[in-house]
């Protein structure tokens, strides 16, 4: 791979490794910056020796990569809010009792059935200045109004640290928030919010005002709500208001990527801007003027779109492309990708952990690297066939590159992705150009009726096409198990195979076969490890009790009739089975007693009856039984008491107090999450 021979590639790899190591090891800042200083001294010394004494550049190269590594690690530490002394995570009192908090609304997120959600910036706790982002949850009621970006509010409440997942192998939302440097949540009602008359008018405020103006003017022009929400996602990257049904259609059709502004969208925008500015003469001054206008337009677009990782990545990369094109310099696409990665991560190293960022760059790399190889397989002379073949090769290159990562994160694969891209991409190019024009005019309170209706109908038919493709659910491969080891070996196999296809040799074929063996051995090792695992799990399921007993890949499900009947559609259970490469071998009713390894488990349901002579290790309380908890604990003397989420919350408080009196551990599943015996 020639790309690995670029010094910039190795520097970028070292920089990224530094970010990863610092993220997972969390080194002390003083030690890290000390090592950075030492690395800088080594780099300076090696540079002097290489220039004056040594002819061999090996030592200079090694010190360069070492310096890049520590710069990456230091960049992450410097940009991580929790390391800042002013961050609210260092104030324990705010997590223990209600405090008066001063917040600035930064961004509105997609709400839940009961709450509206915002990202807010914390300014003060009481009278002391603090900083950091939190997730603000406001309970919806009849008098509640949406808060505007830049609104300063005062709320008295307690911050709650990000929780662990409620169930095993579930999506870790707390970790997801932490990677976005949101370490706590605040829950409140509209009646507890005091709005300030002032607004914080920063770039976020003005970007939000522009988006609001665009949406308001399109709504005044009778733009249908469903199509408008998709238009806002396609053009501005704001997906908060898209209905779950439409999101599911795009996901099943393999077109979810078009709802996140990415390189495809910004590429169309750059082409449109280049066309609009084409009347400006191609003189030296004209080229500089066009470049400045293009860069300003791209930067403005990124701000209005909310500076999402995919938007920042795409705008940064295409800004370098525009610079090279307008200054008449040949642009090496690999250098462009590498420089954009370095530049973005230098200012926002947390973007490295964003799934969209990872998928976008991998897709782009494989399009640049693999697509020419696929395109060379067949070169149709017909222009239409050549255009179709080009779309197909781009789609397959991107899908091959992102497939292991998509399966690792989402455990499914859309089988009809190539049909979706074949139909959607030509229509998307028209929608993007028309959408940018319509929304640009809408920002200035002018919306031509024929243009807005053309955009609305285009999106309407786009939704119809995606819905039709998504309806073929038999082509969607779901619940594909994967782990980090399989992810790594899968990429080794893909890379080795492509390298061999580019220039077939016997040695490269041997490497391909070795990577095939590596994938097989990894899968066998995973299965072998799972066969030795055993666990008994009580799940966190509202108003229901669900228990599994797993021996290797075989799972016994204990639950009521409705859960056993609909087990295939139970998302909590599917996540657990997929992550553990397991299948349900039998389904049974919940009995009053259970035995697991050397543990005797007593299950008390709504009847409240239990045998007197038993000495259980674990007592499980379900369906809010009416029992004398103090007498029961004295009689049975369990090692631990567990109450699942089918019990009333108020009665669990009483149970917890009784257990504390008798010094018996109490595990409330609704509060602490699932309970597991290994």
Number of strands: 20
How much of the polypeptide forms β-strand, as a percent range?
15-25%
Q: What does the radius of gyration come to?
A: 29 Å
Distance between the termini: 46 Å
So how many helices? 22
The outline comes out as globular
Largest sheet: 8 strands, mixed
Structural class: alpha+beta
Low-confidence stretches: none
Overall pLDDT metric: 86
Q: Give the helix proportion (percent range).
A: 40-55%
Structure description:
There is one protein chain. With 678 residues, this protein is α+β, with helices and mostly antiparallel strands. It is 53% helix and 16% strand. The chain is built from 22 helices and 20 strands. Strands 1, 2, 3, 4, 5, 6, 7 and 8 form an eight-stranded mixed β-sheet that branches. A five-stranded mixed β-sheet has the order 14-13-12-11-20. Strand 2 (115-125) and strand 3 (128-129) form a beta hairpin. Helix 5 (203-220) packs across helix 14 (417-442), helix 7 (244-252) crosses helix 15 (449-470) and helix 16 packs antiparallel against helix 17. The longest helix has 28 residues, at 383-410. The protein is globular. It starts with 6 loop residues before the first helix and ends with a strand. The model has no long low-confidence stretch (mean pLDDT 86).
Protein topology:
Blueprint: H1 7-25, H2 29-52, H3 58-78, E1 99-108, E2 115-125, E3 128-129, E4 133-139, E5 151-157, E6 159-161, H4 173-179, E7 182-189, E8 193-199, H5 203-220, H6 225-236, H7 244-252, H8 263-276, H9 284-304, H10 309-326, H11 333-347, H12 355-375, H13 383-410, E9 413-414, H14 417-442, H15 449-470, E10 476-477, H16 484-502, H17 506-531, E11 534-538, E12 546-551, E13 554-559, H18 561-565, H19 571-579, E14 583-588, E15 593-596, E16 599-604, E17 618-621, H20 629-636, E18 640-643, H21 649-661, E19 666-668, H22 669-672, E20 675-677
Parallel strand pairs: 4-7, 13-14, 16-17, 17-18, 18-19
Antiparallel strand pairs: 1-2, 1-5, 2-3, 2-4, 5-8, 6-7, 9-10, 11-12, 11-20, 12-13, 15-16
Helix pairs in contact: 1-3, 1-11, 2-3, 5-6, 5-14, 6-15, 7-15, 8-9, 8-10, 8-14, 9-10, 10-11, 12-13, 13-14, 13-16, 14-15, 16-17
């Amino acid at each position: 791979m020639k790309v690995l021979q670029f010094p910039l590639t190795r520097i970028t790899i070292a920089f990224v490794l530094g970010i990863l190591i610092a993220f997972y090891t969390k080194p002390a800042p003083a030690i890290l910056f000390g090592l950075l200083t030492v690395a800088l001294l080594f780099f300076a010394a090696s540079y002097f020796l290489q220039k004056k004494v040594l002819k061999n550049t090996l030592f200079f190269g090694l010190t360069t990569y070492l310096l890049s590594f520590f710069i990456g690690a230091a960049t992450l530490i410097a940009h991580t809010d929790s390391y800042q002394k002013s961050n609210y995570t260092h104030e324990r009192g705010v997590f223990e009792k209600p405090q008066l908090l001063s917040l600035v609304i930064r961004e509105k997120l997609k709400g839940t059935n009961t709450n509206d959600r915002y990202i807010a910036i914390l300014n003060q706790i009481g009278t002391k200045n603090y900083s950091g982002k939190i997730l603000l949850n406001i309970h919806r009621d009849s008098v509640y109004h949406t808060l505007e970006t830049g609104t300063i509010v005062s709320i008295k409440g307690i911050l709650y640290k990000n929780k662990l997942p409620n169930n095993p192998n579930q999506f870790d939302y707390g970790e997801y928030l932490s990677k976005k440097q949101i370490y706590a949540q605040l829950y409140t009602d509209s009646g507890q919010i005091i709005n300030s008359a002032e607004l914080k008018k920063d770039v976020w405020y003005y970007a939000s005002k522009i988006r609001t103006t665009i949406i308001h003017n399109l709504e005044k022009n009778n733009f249908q709500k469903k199509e408008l929400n998709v238009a806002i996602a396609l053009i501005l990257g704001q997906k908060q208001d898209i209905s779950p049904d439409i999101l599911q259609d795009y996901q099943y059709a393999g077109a979810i990527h078009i709802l996140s502004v990415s390189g495809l969208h910004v590429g169309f925008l750059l082409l449109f801007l280049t066309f609009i500015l084409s009347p400006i003469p191609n003189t030296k001054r004209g080229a500089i003027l066009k470049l400045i206008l293009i860069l300003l337009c791209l930067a403005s677009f990124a701000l209005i779109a909310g500076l999402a990782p995919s938007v920042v990545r795409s705008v940064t990369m295409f800004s370098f492309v525009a610079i090279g094109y307008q200054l008449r310099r040949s642009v090496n696409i690999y250098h462009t990708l590498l420089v954009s990665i370095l530049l973005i991560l230098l200012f926002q190293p947390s973007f490295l952990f964003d799934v969209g960022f990872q998928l976008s760059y991998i897709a782009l790399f494989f399009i640049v690297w693999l697509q020419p190889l696929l395109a060379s397989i067949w070169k149709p002379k017909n222009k239409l066939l050549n255009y179709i073949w080009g779309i197909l090769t781009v789609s397959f290159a991107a899908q091959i590159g992102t497939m292991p990562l998509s399966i690792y994160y989402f455990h499914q694969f859309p089988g009809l992705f190539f049909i979706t891209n074949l139909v959607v991409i030509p229509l998307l190019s028209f929608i993007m150009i028309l959408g940018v024009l319509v929304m640009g005019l809408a920002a200035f309170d002018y919306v031509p009726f024929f243009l807005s209706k053309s955009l609305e109908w285009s999106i309407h038919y786009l939704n119809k096409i995606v819905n039709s493709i998504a309806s073929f659910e038999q082509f969607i491969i779901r619940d594909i198990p994967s782990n980090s080891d399989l992810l790594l070996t899968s990429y080794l196999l893909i890379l080795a195979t492509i390298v061999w296809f580019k220039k077939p040799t016997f040695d490269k074929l041997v490497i391909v076969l070795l990577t095939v063996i590596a994938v097989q051995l990894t899968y066998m090792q995973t299965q072998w490890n799972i066969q030795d695992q055993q666990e008994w799990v009580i799940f966190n399921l509202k108003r229901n009790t669900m228990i599994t007993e797993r021996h290797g890949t075989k799972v016994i499900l204990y639950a009521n009739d409705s859960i056993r009947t609909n087990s295939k559609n139970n998302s909590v259970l599917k996540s657990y089975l997929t992550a553990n490469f397991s299948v349900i071998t039998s389904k049974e009713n919940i009995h009053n007693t259970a035995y697991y390894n050397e543990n005797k488990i007593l299950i008390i349901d709504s009847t409240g009856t239990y045998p007197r002579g038993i000495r259980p290790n674990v007592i499980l309380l379900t369906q809010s039984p009416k029992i004398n908890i103090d007498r029961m604990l004295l009689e049975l003397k369990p090692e631990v008491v567990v109450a699942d989420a089918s019990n009333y919350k108020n009665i669990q408080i009483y149970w917890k107090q009784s257990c504390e009196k008798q010094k018996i551990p109490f595990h409330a599943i609704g509060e602490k999450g699932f309970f597991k015996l290994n």
